[in-house]
Structure formats: structure tokens, C-alpha cells
């Protein structure tokens, strides 16, 4: 994950998606010609000149040299988009062959938030040439427009503030969570596989050239800082209850993630790793004014589908869109923070929208393996008042 306007900002979402997809294909050992479908997620469209993000999953498939017949599907569930790629893959695989015969699916989520454009809202002429526009259209910052929810007359940080307030969250708790998130992320990097350890094995080094032809090498999550409670508590609160500050909200960032989802029998026949199983998923709606509560019903639904209880889950990854939002979820579900976001969360790592769900699943799998955990759950709140969650099982712990 790259910090906004940082090392990865010179890449398009498609470029980052290709890098992640190539890594996933390599790690899985899948033969490219055996991949039946490409499912991609990208929320902010047209973020780089000359890059047509509407073709995102198809272009990733073509650039990764999959069969020309391999179709591409673009999905969008805002902050849950990365999860949705895997959910759609699971659905395709589970359908009868007469309906959909996909057995191996490439899932990619990518976002270059640094390049979200300002657009001119000038409409086309109604009585002139279709290719001419009315003068004087309003300029719109697309990232700010996305952070507002006009129908619900709110904004994402306001929903986190409101939910946190309802759950009795304090500003001090939000800043303590932010400090802990950064501290955990720093500790994980020190023990990462790049430094001779076995942590953060989902992270791979970017060694490529950006859109400008500049060589880029990045082998860590660039948003992570060395901060303190004393620094964080001095920052202004932006919301009515003063719970959300620049230091305890997720970082606007750039990044990508990818996974291969496959039918078990097919994967075994192809010699692919089959250690982790996607047991179930849950997607639920909540009041848009407390959007951050989304993980609560989503997790409960996913657990019910899997036949599990919350106490069965040995590790959670829950997106820290805002510290106030995460703290609300923690309090409502009575979560043990010792097993949640153990290597840091989005407040430290960043939240490139479409990539986040994929990042959460990948980090969860590798940490489950490292700690010997049988069941894990990843979840995120979603703008507009939704939540998504998936339950994963380490089959070697049976």
C-alpha cells in the first residue's frame, strides 16, 4: 500500500492490479490457460490519463496473458469491493456447470486514489452537436464527492462519529487505537519476510516502472508512521463529537491485491495449494447514518452460514475505516483486540477502497497459518450503510 501522492501514485489502478495478479498467479502455481474468469474491482474510475478503468478486469486478464476467451467482470461494492470479487468467484464456482462452468477465477482489487480527478460537470448541448458541451459547468473533486452520501445527508466521517458516539467511544480511545495500529504495523514490518522473519507474507515487492517510465521499488506499507498519543491528541476533531481526526482515520492510499479462488477438486488436480477454504460470506445493510456498524450484522450472518459462533474465530481482520467506527464495532461485539488486526489496520496501513477486502483476506490467511488458527473472519463497513464479511478455514487444522 502506498501513501497518497507517494511511491505508487505514478501507477494506474490497472497497472497495480496487473502486478498483484501476476504475484497471485505465480504463488498459486496455476497454469494461465486454466483460469476461467477474471473478476476485478475498482471504485474510482479513470484515475490515470490514457487508462480506461471500465476495462479493468478484462485488461488485467489480457495483460496477464490469460486465454483470449477468458471473460472479465467488474464489480463495485465500494469498500467491500475486494470481498465482492471473491464472493462472486465463489458463487460462479458453486453454480451447476450448466449455469456457469467456471472452476478457477482470478480476483483483483486495485485503487489509485492519488489520481482521482477533478471533473467538469458541464452537460452536453441539448440542441447543438452531441459532441459539444455547455460552458461553465461546476468542477467536482471526485474523492470528496465519494466521501459524502447525499441521499442520507451525511458523510463517511460523520457516520463513524455518530456510531462511535452511540457506542460510548471516546476520543482518547480513538487515538489509542490509532497509536496501537501504527505500532502493530511497525512491529510486523520488523518481523516481515523482507527482514528475515515470517510476518506480512502477503506483501510483495513492487519492482517496476510507473506511467512516467520511472523505476520504482517498494517493499513495505508506505502509510505506516511512528506516532504517539501525545501527537495524536493534539490534532483537531473534524466531527460534531470530535471523535474523528486526521490521525485516527484511515489513510487515503494506493494499492492492489489479488487472490485465486478455485474449486477444490480442480485445484488439487492442477497441483495448486488448497490449504484455505472460504466457508461463507455475509453482506448486510445498516442505517446509512451509522455506516460503520456494517461489520456487526455481516459477521453475524457469515458466522451463522458457516455454523460457527464468534468464540470459534481465532483471528479477525476488520477494516479500520475510522478509529471511531472500529471502536464501535469492538464494543458492540465485545471483541478481544488481542486477536483483531494483529499486524495493524487501515488507520496505519491505508484503505485503497477496492483493494482493501482483498488485502484483509490475504493478511488473514497468512497470519492464520503463522499462528496455527483454524477459523478466521475478515470484514469491512461499506459506504451507504452496508457491511461485508467472509469466514476462512485452515483445512490443515482439522
Structure description:
The chain has 398 residues and is α+β, with helices and mostly antiparallel strands. It folds into 2 domains: 2-117 and 253-269, Peroxisomal Thiolase, Chain A, domain 1 (3-Layer(aba) Sandwich), CATH 3.40.47.10; 154-201 and 275-391, Peroxisomal Thiolase, Chain A, domain 1, CATH 3.40.47.10. It is built from 12 helices and 15 strands. It has helices at 13-28, 56-63, 81-94, 142-147, 156-166, 171-190, 229-232, 264-269, 295-306, 323-333, 346-349, 353-371; strands spanning 2-3, 37-41, 72-75, 104-112, 118-120, 139-141, 148-149, 154-155, 206-209, 215-218, 253-262, 276-285, 315-318, 375-382, 386-394. It has a 5-stranded mixed β-sheet with strand order 1-11-4-2-3, sandwiched between helices. A hairpin with a 3-residue loop joins β14 and β15 (386-394). α1 (13-28) packs across α2. The longest helix is centred in the middle third of the chain and has 20 residues, at 171-190. It is globular. The two termini are 33 Å apart. The model has no long low-confidence stretch (mean pLDDT 96).
Amino acid at each position: 500500500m502506498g501513501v497518497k501522492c507517494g511511491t505508487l501514485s505514478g501507477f494506474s489502478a490497472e497497472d497495480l492490479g496487473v502486478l498483484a495478479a501476476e504475484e497471485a498467479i505465480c504463488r498459486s502455481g496455476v497454469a494461465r490457460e486454466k483460469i476461467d474468469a477474471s473478476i476485478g474491482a475498482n471504485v474510482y474510475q479513470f484515475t490515470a490519463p490514457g487508462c480506461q478503468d471500465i476495462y479493468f478486469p478484462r485488461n488485467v486478464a489480457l495483460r496477464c496473458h490469460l486465454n483470449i476467451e477468458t471473460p472479465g467482470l467488474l464489480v463495485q461494492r465500494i469498500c467491500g469491493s475486494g470481498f465482492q470479487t471473491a464472493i462472486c468467484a465463489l458463487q460462479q464456482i458453486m453454480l451447476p456447470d450448466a449455469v456457469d462452468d467456471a472452476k478457477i477465477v482470478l480476483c483483483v482489487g486495485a485503487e489509485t486514489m492519488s489520481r482521482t480527478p477533478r471533473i467538469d460537470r458541464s452537460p452536453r448541448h441539448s440542441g447543438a452537436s452531441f459532441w459539444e458541451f455547455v460552458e461553465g459547468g461546476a468542477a467536482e473533486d471526485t474523492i470528496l464527492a465519494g466521501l459524502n452520501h447525499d441521499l442520507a445527508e451525511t458523510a463517511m466521517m460523520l457516520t463513524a462519529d455518530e456510531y462511535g458516539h452511540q457506542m460510548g467511544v471516546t476520543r482518547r480511545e480513538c487515538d489509542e487505537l490509532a497509536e496501537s495500529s501504527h505500532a502493530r504495523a511497525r512491529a510486523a514490518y520488523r518481523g516481515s519476510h523482507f527482514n528475515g522473519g515470517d510476518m506480512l507474507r502477503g506483501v510483495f515487492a513492487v519492482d517496476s516502472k510507473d506511467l512516467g517510465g520511472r523505476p520504482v521499488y517498494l517493499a513495505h506499507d508506505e502509510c505506516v508512521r511512528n506516532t504517539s498519543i501525545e501527537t495524536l491528541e493534539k490534532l483537531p476533531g473534524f466531527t460534531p463529537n470530535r471523535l474523528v481526526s486526521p490521525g485516527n482515520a484511515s489513510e487515503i492510499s494506493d494499492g492492489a491485491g489479488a487472490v485465486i479462488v478455485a474449486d477444490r477438486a480442480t485445484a488439487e488436480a492442477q497441483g495448486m495449494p488448497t490449504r484455505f477454504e472460504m466457508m461463507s460470506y455475509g453482506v448486510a445493510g445498516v442505517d446509512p447514518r451509522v455506516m460503520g456498524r456494517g461489520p456487526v450484522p455481516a459477521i453475524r450472518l457469515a458466522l451463522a452460514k458457516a455454523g460457527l459462533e464468534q468464540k470459534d474465530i481465532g483471528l479477525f481482520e476488520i477494516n479500520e475505516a475510522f478509529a471511531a467506527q472500529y471502536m464501535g464495532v469492538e464494543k458492540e461485539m465485545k471483541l478481544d483486540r488481542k486477536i483483531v488486526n494483529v499486524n495493524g489496520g487501515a488507520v496505519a496501513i491505508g484503505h485503497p477502497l477496492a483493494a482493501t477486502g482483498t488485502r484483509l483476506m490475504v493478511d488473514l490467511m497468512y497470519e492464520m497459518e503463522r499462528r496455527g488458527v483454524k477459523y478466521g473472519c475478515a470484514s469491512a463497513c461499506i459506504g451507504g450503510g452496508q457491511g461485508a464479511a467472509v469466514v476462512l478455514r485452515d483445512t490443515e487444522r482439522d
